[in-house]
Design goal:
Two copies of one chain form a homodimer.
Chain A (H helix, E strand, L loop, with lengths): L3 E7 L1 H4 L6 H12 L3 E8 L3 H14 L2 E5 L10 H8 L4 E3 L1 H13 L13 E3 L3 E3 L8 E6 L2 E6 L3 H17 L5 E10 L3 H14 L4 E7 L2 E10 L2 H19 L3 E4 L4 H12 L3 E5 L5 H8 L7 E6 L3 H6 L5 H7 L4 H15 L3 E7 L14 E8 L2 E8 L6 H20 L9
């Protein structure tokens, strides 16, 4: 029988928005890798009645409840009490846990106060998950047809406690694995992708196929469930191949972190270097390229020419071009890329110039009017973008940078710069 | 009567852990600022039956339900259908929304496919939230004693749609006002702040005081509830003044968006310009400075000198310095700042060089060893940072950039560059 999991996160700080629920994400990833279906996340505050109500709902719709938070010594930590009560378990003082807690406090030079030993009270007959990454132990027990697993809230404890304590416990319960591949596309909208795949998606059961929109990019996730990894992979392969063939060069990678990472891999393969000249993206291209560790092998550097003065003085864009066409123009974008290639001494240079808003520029170019260019040993190519009328500044900049990266990807892969859908 | 809110996030990608639920955090912050109590977050997948069950539970325990996700054109977008059904509303085709959706697709040069108009189907008699940040409109309606508000899932749309559409709608529902001021500090740890204020915080009821740690910065939020804004302000003022006095020059602003925005305001006031020379931060400083609209008045540009070649060739750092001290050194940081000031023709230049990891550099400098420098008409100052043993690359870069901005803030405010806590 297949299990269904509910993640119950306890903590008023989550409901106030003081922290984001990264535990739930981490657990969800780990659980789906174990082949366990997560149907609900619930977040509830440090309130015994409401936690109890949430537990009573969870036990109706899941047979595995994983709680995070509320195991520590402070007075609003109540998860263990409520869960033990809900499943008719007594809390029993565990000597071994008490000993570990004491030594942890002594080791970290913190005062050993009475209340810390509250953390050594654990449900009778539970499996104790000793906590080597903090003080509060976790635990697991089965009662009334439900497996209850309690983990500490701090992500630095919850992560390893799941990986090294809860996951081994859960592995015995789960049959099969869930594996997925993510096909990353650029230059095609989610709606278009979905329109093309709707019938196929509806027809598919294993593997399943789902599209996601991401900052102007589109992802297709193919997910298969099987008894063993090899089986799952065998189920995934045909669909992945079919989708790669269907979307052709719009696919920039499968299971890759980002388009900039793909560009850097291509640069490494070709033994080439990259540089940037940024106006509207204001350093975002360089920032994204250097987010990837080891970028220095292929990324030489960049110039953020936010003013015409710098475009002219550092990149050598002629004043005549700037006066005649304005900073937001194809000729200037090209001259910026050529200048960066020369000044930075790189094989490929990317440039961006445009109106990121909030207002039109002095020449009346609309917000969202962008030019990206690439300069290589084979010449220069420029592309004009219209990224919408009332856009979000941050998204405009992100999409413009991605368009520039796509030019580099296409050049390095020997693909045409432009193509029609 | 005081309202209780439940946030219902719809999306299988959340249950698979593909994304973290930042929408719920953003909404929770905004709702508590409106004086609305959030008691539960629920996350459910793209499954009509389970969404319906989640809605039926939410309506029992909340009188405001805010959904995120499931408004887009793809077949697994189902929130509107389920919510309309649950509250006995028909979905009606809205011409105006359809027009806006069409023009958005045309403007952004994407094909207008049939399925995109599914987004123009809206519950009868609802308040339509037009979406200026994407395509899917949101909406709000009241039925059977419950307010239902539906917002799109992508954070870049959900954020502004809440701020500019949902928040004004909700303001009418909340009685009294909750106002807060946020005091932003840099150069002091949250633990230190909390230790100093613990007793005071516990003693306070209205206003309340809460510290938040943010990427190496620290925020103190003072929040007051009152019948009218003036009353709330009167409650807040004394605490804000006291805290500003207590933390002195470690306070870089109150209710300011960021330290870079503060630096740019100071530059405007002084009629001065800024430039950057970045190695380890790789464009992040320039990116953050240009995140602020209108930066071009005070930010001239920057050089991302990720390789020694560019440090020497573009910034004019002497080869002798680079050979003798290495790229990660105080003299090179200073020479980078001086070079940027000269090359970019700006009044103040900031530089960064260091080891962002994952590995030590070739001279054995540990990950987290950073230098930031500032060059002005009055000379140069360099600061060495040790940002910890087990650091995260992204956080190292963010903190290094913030340290550099703090040097500029201190120079422009006539404060000493360094001081002891």
């Amino acid at each position: 029988m297949s299990h269904t999991v509910e993640i119950l996160s306890v903590g008023t700080e989550l409901l106030l928005g003081n922290i984001v629920n990264t535990d739930a994400q981490m657990l969800s990833q780990g659980l789906s890798a174990l082949g366990l279906n997560v149907y609900y996340h619930t977040v509830v505050g440090d309130n015994p009645q409401r936690v109890r109500r949430a537990v009573d709902i969870a036990r109706q719709r899941a047979d595995i409840i994983i709680t995070t938070g509320g195991l520590g010594p402070t007075c609003d930590d109540l998860t263990k009490n409520v869960l033990a009560q809900a499943f008719g378990k007594k809390l029993i003082y565990d000597e071994e846990s008490a000993r570990r807690i004491r030594s942890h406090f002594v080791r970290t030079g913190r005062p050993v106060t009475e209340n810390i030993f509250q953390q050594a009270m654990l449900p009778e007959g539970c499996t104790i998950f000793s906590n080597d990454w903090g003080t509060a132990p976790g635990c697991a027990f089965q009662a009334e047809g439900v497996h209850v697993i309690m983990l500490p809230g701090p992500p630095s404890e919850c992560g390893p406690m799941f990986q090294y304590r809860a996951a081994p416990y859960l592995r015995q319960l789960s049959e099969g694995v869930i594996l997925s591949h993510t096909i990353k596309l650029f230059g095609i909208g989610e709606a278009t992708v979905e329109a093309r795949l709707r019938e196929q998606m509806n027809a598919m059961t294993n593997p399943t196929l789902a599209p996601y929109a991401k900052e102007g990019e589109c992802e297709l996730r193919v997910t298969a469930k099987a008894a063993a990894p090899e089986e799952a992979q065998a189920l995934l392969r045909p669909t992945v191949d079919q989708l790669k063939a269907l979307f052709g060069s719009k696919v920039y990678g499968v299971d890759v972190p980002s388009i900039e990472a793909v560009v850097e891999d291509l640069l490494r393969q070709r033994g080439m270097t990259l540089g940037t000249a940024e106006s509207c993206t204001g350093g975002l291209m360089a920032k994204r390229l250097t987010d990837v560790p080891g970028a220095s092998q292929v990324f030489k550097g960049g110039v953020v020419s936010y003013t015409n003065e710098v475009k002219h003085g550092v990149l050598g864009v002629s004043q005549e071009l700037l006066d005649r066409f304005g900073a937001v123009s194809a000729p200037v974008a090209q001259a910026m890329a050529q200048g960066a290639r020369r000044v930075l001494g790189c094989d490929i240079a990317l440039s961006s110039t445009g109106v990121a808003g909030p207002d039109r520029d002095d020449r009346g170019n609309e917000v969202g009017t962008m030019f990206v260019a690439i300069a290589t040993a084979d010449g220069t190519h420029v592309k004009q973008l219209h990224l919408g009328a009332r856009p979000v500044r941050a998204r405009l900049r992100t999409q413009t940078a991605t368009h520039a990266f796509d030019l580099a990807r296409r050049y390095l892969s020997g693909l045409p710069y432009e193509e029609t859908v």
